[in-house]
Amino acid sequence: MQHISWLTFTILILASYRLTHLIVFDKITEFIRKPFMKKKKTIDQQGHTNIEKVPKSNFGYLLNCYWCAGIWCALIIGLGYLFIPKISIPFIFILSIAGAQAILETFVGVGTKLISFLSDLKK
Questions:
Q1: Where are the transmembrane segments (predicted)?
Q2: pTM
């Protein structure tokens, strides 16, 4: 196996993170998850009816479980980088930039909400 620098390893991690998030959570890929989901009606102790989407099969769990999908995305990213770098590196590069941006946005969003919360406390 070839030597992978820390920068390359970080880029691969960020790309895997973003691909996993794209598959499991993003609205744009809902069409992929939808055929593997079913609606389940539950009634809580107060008599309220809740409808939730649950996986129909193990593949449905794979598409809705962050930990499960993360393993497969890491496998795809890693093997793509090692065996078909000319094709995969541009996608890995874009996914890693988007992954880093998503992480930064999370911190900025949390900071903004915290500042707003603290300023509301002063009032």
A1: 6-25, 61-84, 90-115
A2: 0.81
